[in-house]
Amino acid sequence: LAKTTQPISMDSYEGQEVNITCSHNNIATNDYITWYQQFPSQGPRFIIQGYKTKVTNEVASLFIPADRKSSTLSLPRVSLSDTAVYYCLVGDINSGGYQKVTFGIGTKLQVIP
Amino acid sequence: ETGVTQTPRHLVMGMTNKKSLKCEQHLGHNAMYWYKQSAKKPLELMFVYNFKEQTENNSVPSRFSPECPNSSHLFLHLHTLQPEDSALYLCASSQVSSATDTQYFGPGTRLTVL
User: Where does residue B61 rank: exposed (0-12), middle (13-18), buried (19+ CB within 10 A)?
Assistant: First the structure.
């Protein structure tokens, strides 16, 4: 059973705000929500992390409703360089009791000139 | 980002070769990871090490053999690989293996198996 569900792809014009929503209906009480960005042929890079309500940094904002069953990554005024795959992650526990993260398919964002 | 380095960056090998991928982290982290990313597929977690102990083996075939001699170094030994093993192999590290800890990724090794 997938931990997270995201749209497979999105297109946006330069200068627009982009919102990518992730569903995580089975999120556990102690799970945080983390977003990563990956450019082609590179490793993912941390963007933002939150537990509830709203988190903002110099790159993005993360909105988390009270029930925490979803979250929305907001990228303000995207540029061509924001074209990448965006992953939403929540925690998980492996058989040995260690927490791990599982990267899903992610959302491929294509920014159009 | 030079916190996590991987060598070689590109590798071409035959199915009968033996090669090793190397990962080194300079961040003082205690957890290290190997991921595989095939074309147009999601990242696949292969192995996790916490404090040099393997804590995750995600049903990886035995032709992939990890080694973690210390918290700063991680190897992936390869032997008798198949063409479908061609992929980008990514190493990552974090403070500990926790969903809240940021993972820092290396640039990856692009592996081609002929």
Answer: exposed
pLDDT of residue A86: 97
Identify the sign of the CA torsion A97, B29, A46, B76.
negative
Cβ proximity of A41 and B38 under 8 Å? no
The tokens describing A82, both together, are: 């924001």
**Chain B CA closest to residue A43:** B105
Runs of H (alpha helix) within B1-114: none
Nearest to B32 by CA among B78, B89, B95, B99: B95
Cβ within 8 Å of A, B 23-82: 35, 42-43, 45, 48, 50, 55-56
Contacts of B23 (CB under 8 A, 6+ apart): B4, B5, B6, B32, B34, B73, B74, B75, B76, B91, B106
Residue-wise pLDDT tens digits, B35-54: 999 987 888 999 999 888 88
Please determine, for residue A97, whether its predicted confidence score (pLDDT) is greater than 70. Answer: no
CA B64 from centre of chain: 10
The answer to whether B99 contacts A32, with C-beta atoms less than 8 Å apart, is yes
Q: Is B97 on the interface with A (CB under 8 A)?
A: yes
Distance CA B4, CA B104 (A): 7
Element (H, E) at B79: strand B73-79
